[in-house]
Here is the input.
Amino acid sequence: MTELIAAQVLPDTKGYFGEFGGSFIPPQLQEIMDEITAEYLKFKDDKEFQDELHYLYKHFVGRPSPIFFAENLTKKVGGAKIYFKREDLNHTGAHKINHCLGEAMLAKRMGKKKIIAETGAGQHGVALATAAAQYELECDIYMGEVDIYKERPNVLRMKALGANVIPVTVGAKTLKEAVDVAFQAYLQDPVTQLYAIGSVVGPHPFPMMVRDFQSIVGIEAKEQFFEMTGKLPDNLVACVGGGSNSLGLFSNFLEDLDVNIYGVEPAGLSFKTGEHASTLTYGTPGVIHGFRCYLLQDENGEPGPVYSVASGLDYPGVGPQHSYLKDIKRVKYETCSDHEAISAFFELSKIEGIIPALESAHAVAYAMKLAQTLSAEDTILVNLSGRGDKDIDFVFEKYGKQFGVEV
Here is the structure.
């Protein structure tokens, strides 16, 4: 129990969750990070800051997001009852807006002129561009060329919102490279701009800060689910790339030991090197982008190649708190293949009228498998982290014929 209580209050003052986290960055940038940490801790419990944030959550984002009992899917799958926390119904279409508004508010109060970030699936980019518009900040979004092709609807949304979308053409041209290039841009001017990291990753204080902003998901879910069913969910399920949507849901249930918690990583095409991004399943401790975590590495200890059909999940690292939760065995990390995720994408769309993001479809697919191993008295709450509007063109072009839904 001591470790579980620690999981609620970590990181420590140096940004560590056990052996994971920290801040592995140049001294000049560390000074900037220390300033960000001090400013965030000042505003974290500031009533005016929190009142403004929750006003926007309610009147701009549309929170609280509802919980929905997927009765049709439950009947078809059999076994446990499946519920969804509908983060896909948020303004901008995903959970990302929760922390982007907080980061933009912090940047404005610190006197920054610009916010910059990476994006994979584009949901963080869209949410940050939205927050930048709300707070009259310039916004640069770095996005790999591969993801620009896959996520064209979100690219257009970012541009419509006034953001500069900067193609990343190095390496695999996906999320990891977008982070690399965005960090380089940030190092050139860390004074007038804020790097609004898109997940619970990066140097301290970002894993803590993004988790705190996302914790609204779990806070709402616990109250809503109890009101709906008279008890807590027996099982929680969420996809894990960097890990922000999952920690948002999990963080408020860590001490509820009767609640089983599952994080679902992308198994991609196979478990061969470069064909998956199952970091917690196959990675080893290492350092990436200024923090220590479980990491998929090559023979030289450098971040290895990764792949997922879901652009938001193809990252070789993972949040340090997830790494810690794996080690203390509070969360069980499972995997889901591309094929399983695409199948769940179409199944949920046809059975419930909900088109999930490809990232979220990984969690849906695992929940469907898990439900069949449980009784009808059991319950599963899935964090439906985003909607699939952004993926629909790519999915139909690449998988439509295979799944019998050609245009």
